[in-house]
Amino acid sequence: xxxxxxxxxxxxxxxxxxxxxxxxxxxxxxxxxxxxxxxxxxxxxxxxxxxxxxxxxxxxxxxxxxxxxxxxxxxxxxxxxxxxxxxxxxxxxxxxxxxxxxxxxxxxxxxxxxxxxxxxxxxxxxxxxxxxxxxxxxxxxxxxxxxxxxxxxxxxxxxxxxxxxxxxxxxxxxxxxxxxxxxxxxxxxxxxxxxxxxxxxxxxxxxxxxxxxxxxxxxxxxxxxxxxxxxxxxxxxxxxxxxxxxxxxxxxxxxxxxxxxxxxxxxxxxxxxxxxxxxxxxxxxxxxxxxxxxxxxxxxxxxxxxxxxxxxxxxxxxxxxxxxxxxxxxxxxxxxxxxxxxxxxxxxxxxxxxxxxxxxxxxxxxxxxxxxxxxxxxxxxxxxxxxxxx
Length: 390
Description:
By secondary structure, this protein is mainly alpha-helical. Among the domains are: 2-166, Tetratricopeptide repeat domain (Serine Threonine Protein Phosphatase 5, Tetratricopeptide repeat); 353-390. Helix content is 75%, strand content 2%. The protein is built from 19 helices and three strands. Strands 2-1-3 form a three-stranded antiparallel sheet, with no helix packed on it.
């Protein structure tokens, strides 16, 4: 996608540069230079398409020398440098553009945005913050500047500033940022909870649910806080609200939920809840949880029969491991040895699998993250549904 935008940015260069050269020289002389310029330009595009960035940079540097007023070429060069990790060179290119007195306001703003991205890539967040804040104050490409500022405040974990700028972005674009703002309030609630400020944490959770009524994370934090206070009955309600808000997170919800049910003596209630979940959710976690309840209450035979029947409907390596573990004690001799090999193979298979994937960028992980480490979206990292996963 970045390459596509880069090509779009470079496309007008040959034509604009040729037109400028045609006006400044005789028809014959300018024609020769335009031909040379066009040849270099398309040669550079060919290098880009073939991912030969070193050669592409060399060509576009030569192209920029033909006409130092070609802003698009300099912007393209800066982008190339940044993509290659040569951030210092990208900064110099964009600073050179910004310093030019004959640059239009629109193009200067674009150059400033690019320079801000250079600063972010270089880890110079204070410079980037100042630059984007100035652009937002001038309403110059304000939505882009605000998005960059929000990214900076998230990185710095300055959630109050992130909330303030997300609200500004929402007001400016008319597009709801409620989902993201709710996550920021959840972060604040987690911080307050860690510091023992329960009432403050609950106030943040209320704010989170105002911005996103079905915020799974807010319900889960609320449940955890009630569980900490010894109020398991209310915690159970909170965890069930979280599950029905989005069943995709049920694998994260079930462990604390079942602990609360066990302490409250409500395993029959948990059984009914799990049966309802299994009807709507195709992952293996609620099946394994219900298998555990049957084994504890009704015995091993009932649990094995239930799990076997479920595995016919929803094949699962994790389910197979649970079935092997449940039947190992009944095996002896060669059969027992074979089951040991099978159990070892299934464990190795699971050990190499990503259990979670971001629905936006495809980032894979073995543990759950509320914010995707790759694309920085919130609540998009979900359990992978499949034979070797959930």
